[in-house]
Amino acid sequence: MRRTFLKALAFSLAGAFCAAPAWSQAQPVEIEFYYPVAVGGPITKIVDGMVDEFEKSHPDIKIKSIYAGTYQDSVAKALTAHKGGHAPQLAVLLSTDMFTLIDEGAIVPFDPLVQSDEDKKWLNGFYKGFMANSQTGGKTWGIPFQRSTIVMYYNKDLFKEAGLDPNAPPATWDELVAQAKKLTKTDGSGQVSQWGLEIPSGGSFAYWLFQALTTPNDAILMNEAGNQVFLDKPAVIEALQFWHDLAYKHKVMPTGTIDWGTTPKDFLVGKTAMMWTTTGNLTNVRKNAKFDFGVAPMPKAKRGGSPTGGGNFYLFKSATPEQQKAAYAFVKWMTKPENAAAWSIDTGYVAVTPAAWETDKMKDYVKEVPTALVARDQLEVSVAEFSTHDNQRITKLLNDNIQAVLTNSKTAEQAMKDAQRDADRLLRSYK
Known about the structure:
By secondary structure, the chain is α+β, with helices and mostly antiparallel strands. It has two domains: 28-148 and 309-381, Periplasmic binding protein-like II (D-Maltodextrin-Binding Protein, domain 2); 150-308 and 387-430, D-Maltodextrin-Binding Protein, domain 2, CATH 3.40.190.10. It has helices spanning 2-25, 43-57, 71-83, 98-103, 117-123, 128-131, 156-161, 173-183, 206-214, 234-248, 262-268, 282-288, 321-334, 337-347, 354-357, 360-368, 372-378, 391-406, 412-427, and strands spanning 29-35, 61-67, 90-94, 107-108, 135-136, 139-140, 143-155, 185-186, 192-194, 274-278, 293-296, 308-316. Helix 18 (391-406) runs antiparallel to helix 19 (412-427). The longest helix is centred in the N-terminal third of the chain and has 24 residues, at 2-25.
């Protein structure tokens, strides 16, 4: 009896020791993932929910999400961590950060991971408009994720009050001025109580909204290699002059700079009848607007068009081969049609592949919210967001000069000549 017990115990212990390596080797691959929180709404909850769902279907991968603040905060933190030897393995950063991340030696291209026919089909499945800020030199450095274009939101109730057709928003610059004048109201003391239009110009996104004027005026601000800019061209100066005139000549917009975060708030409380901002604000507006609203593409001067915008996934050099594969699996999962559709519906960003728009979920959403199609359809005439080598400094000098015009400190011509001169000096070494 005793011998039988000891034999059974020995057998049991042997089994336990044999099994030990199996569970000890099954430690999940950990990925540190930087994510920027830059647009209104419960974005962190949505990301957390998607990460949880991914981990359930991929128990061998653990994603540690780090919410790093604004896009600018996130890229600064990621580059600081890279220089300190403890960079994340994956991050969502602005598509325009591509050249900076390459120049800093912080990221690696995705191409070596794209092996199978299925992988190649996946990579070729993104909208070409979004890939313009994701590829350079024949390599894919970023994968589109939370991408956008600039659209015009307008208050249909205020349009009706002003005697305007709520289903005919301004389609040209001339119509924009004429309708904005009818939508601008003053109180008994002569103070403006309702603006016709607000275009955000404060902070770090002035250059992006500027492209919503230069693109329709048929002006491109930089070359594909990111080492040359065209800021002093007549069409660029003309676009900046028009922006200035909306406030100072036509008096349909506040003078000075308008804060990025203030614009949606002003729109939701009826302080402005129209606003230009990211399509990434669509869900925020849908949930909080107490009035009927519409969404329209950028008004035309010589053509239609908007810059694309938003963030890409980037793979950092710090990742081991195992972490690269795990990060790649996560990126593919996050961008597969069903998940890209869900992300678009939950946030308002543009679903990044045509396949996402063919899912039943997206088709049902579009029936309910046809305004979601505006940003997608505008991709046909959209251009790459302004991005160059030494991008932080180049965009800052462009922003500073735009803001100088909007605060009446410089003329449009002087500002763009100054910006061109300084940009040429900074980009000289990249040619």
